[in-house]
Amino acid sequence: MGKITIAIDGYSSTGKSTIAKQLAKALDYVYIDTGAMYRAVTLYTLRNKLIGEKINDIRAIVKSLSKINLEFTYNPTLGYSEMYLNGENVEKEIRTLEVSKYVSRIAEIKEVREMLVGMQQEMGKVKGIVMDGRDIGTVVFPNAELKVFMTASPAKRAYRRYKELLEKGEEITYEQILKNVQLRDHIDSSREFSPLRKADGAITFDNSDMGLQEQFERLFSYAQRVIETKKGTP
Ligand code: DC
């Protein structure tokens, strides 16, 4: 009753998934990380040597899409769903810098986007969903009741990501991360198909100087207001 669709888009490393997960938990909604889907396709293409430093075999990538099975499986211990690629839990493998380096190139391919958007729209048929990505409010769910566009300065985002990867034990410098963040911003916003942009009706949410708790409280109250106004409508 009164369940809505929440679309969260924005630049990489703005903390979309952290906040989306928290929101979904508090509202008892399903959370879907669409970036994980693009990352899983990238991992598949890297493993099968269809993409790399000197390879970019778009036709072979498109051909291979029929061999890729993606599934989210709920992990009750963690309280959210994890990404499975052809039956294998790839949560850890899809978060490496190697995958981050190539994922924007994969996300530029029209056929990849069509396949993943179709899957996402299918998953969203049940209301009560929080989905984050780059084109959720513009392409996947243009009619979402609540759309959020998250942003933060590149330096802040790079620093957050740097800390995250250091904790995971990756050997990486802040400068490398900043370069990756800037490069991804550029590719994500200038690509031909579904470039990252603020959706009509979306709230801009700049969290450069906001802690997690404050972000959560603000977005939770936005969501509650929208849900409240939906109550009583058919
Ligand atoms: O949110 P993320 O950093 O895990 O996303 C990984 C990449 O996937 C990002 O560079 C852009 C792309 N992406 C996209 O193009 N559309 C989406 N809905 C989600 C992610």
Main attributes?
single chain, 234 residues, alpha/beta, 5-stranded parallel beta sheet, 3-stranded antiparallel beta sheet, 9 helices, 8 strands, 48% helix, 17% strand, globular, binds 2'-deoxycytidine-5'-monophosphate
Explained architecture:
- Helix content is 48%, strand content 17%.
- The chain has 234 residues and is α/β, with parallel strands linked by helices.
- It has a 5-stranded parallel sheet with strand order 2-6-1-7-8. It has a 3-stranded antiparallel sheet with strand order 3-4-5, with helices on one face.
- The longest helix is centred in the last third of the chain and has 19 residues, at 212-230.
- It starts with a strand and ends with a helix.
- 2'-deoxycytidine-5'-monophosphate binds at residues 12, 34-35, 38-39, 103-104, 107, 133-135, 184, 188.
Mean pLDDT: 93
Write down how many β-strands occur, each being a DSSP E stretch of 2 or more residues. 8
Structural class: alpha/beta
Low-confidence spans: none
Strand order of the largest sheet: 2-6-1-7-8
Instruction: Profile the largest sheet.
Output: 5 strands, parallel
Question: What is the N-to-C order of secondary-structure elements (H for helix, E for strand)?
Answer: EHEHHEEEHHEHEHHEH
Number of helices: 9
